[in-house]
Specification:
The protein has 467 residues and is an alpha+beta fold. The chain is built from 7 helices and 32 strands. A 6-stranded antiparallel beta barrel has the order 12-21-24-23-22-25. The two termini are 41 Å apart.
Length: 467
Amino acid sequence: MIRALAAIVLVVGLAAGAAGGYWYARPPVVTVAFAAQSATPVAERKILYYREPSGAPYWSAVPKKDASGRDYLPVYDDEEMSFDPAPKKSVAISGPRRVRYYRNPMGLPDTSPVPKKDNMGMDYIPVYEGEQQDDGKTVKVSLDKIQRSGVRTEPVQERSIVHPVRAVGTVKTDERLLTTVTVRSDGYVEDLFVNATGQPVHKGEPLFRFYSPDIQTAQVDLIVSAGPKANSPLGVDTRGPVQRLRNLGVPETRIEEVRATGTNMRTLDWPSPTTGTVIYKGIMNGQQVKAGAELYRIADLTHMWVIAEVAEADLSSIAVGTSASVTVRAYPNEPFEGRVTFIYPDIKPETRTARVRIEVPNPDGRLKIDMYADVVFHTGVDKGPVVAVPASAVIDSGTRQVVLVAKGDGRFEPRPVKLGRRGDGYIEILSGVAKGEDVVTSATFLIDAESNLKAALQAFTQQETTP
């Protein structure tokens, strides 16, 4: 029938050419192809969308014209078109396709050899020949579905990943800068010069006036051993009394004064051994004290510790030397910068957190003991760029991590990957994809569902064909 119709059209074309001389301009093969193609009833074909006639990447859901007044060309549901850049023609990759079966529109593993509807009244989706004929690793999505779903891709690049780890902490004194004031003999406090907690003191400044019978006895021994003249040089006999006074904690200035004057002074103004702030006071005026009792505790508050509670899952990102920002409630807009100096070797079983020590300078004394602190660790700053993809490109089901690699022509390959550090909206890829490959960053779950559906249908059809 087609051959007869083509012959008739050819004869009519020859006659018209002989009459008017126009048939040279239109080759017979194009006329025959047009006649053969027109044999397909146009009414049975569904128009998916309209494309720009020059081949530019513009489409329309309704008929329209371009800027030059040319009509957009229809694209039917039974053909896939690839367009020539020239505005003269379009080349059909495949002609009418035969429907293999119909699949469930909700993605269930249910197929039908004939058109039907599901229990919600939705039409089953046709699956054409060639749609499942690939390497078994990729999934093909139609162009119109890609456009409707807003699928976007981005090339894999190398970038520096900075992952801020957040934790809470408490301001503490630097334990290395704490000093305890005590005496090495029993005695009595006859007067207090520093009588309040929080009072600042300087090294050598008197803290309290102390009377001790043991110190009195050692001073008498020194005076006797020194001879009748107070300024006589110390001989062999004076070494023992001098050493006893030193063992009792008596300052060298008092020893030299006793040796020079020959006077047994009854009390001793006990000097401060360091400069700092009194954070504990354990004596009162007139109190009897025992040897070894803690009388004062003095702290140097110009350098503080912040003990942060870091979640166990974030501990691998933190190391000694990692920089951190500390913010306290009193100064919310003025963070203090410090560095990690120690990670404690234990984990709190109640909170599953580890203690991390941050050293922070405090020259102006704004940081107070036991202040609540918000800590941000700047991890990854010192590391170089790594291969990374946007976080939205990774499909993480808990047991597997997959990215979708765009292969072109609507084909996508699910690729399992091994993940590394996260930060700034990106995830490090240790293996699975290489730099320069395009990965899907939006509508990933749609393509992943298509991939899972394809695998389910392949397994279903294999079970049907098994003898």
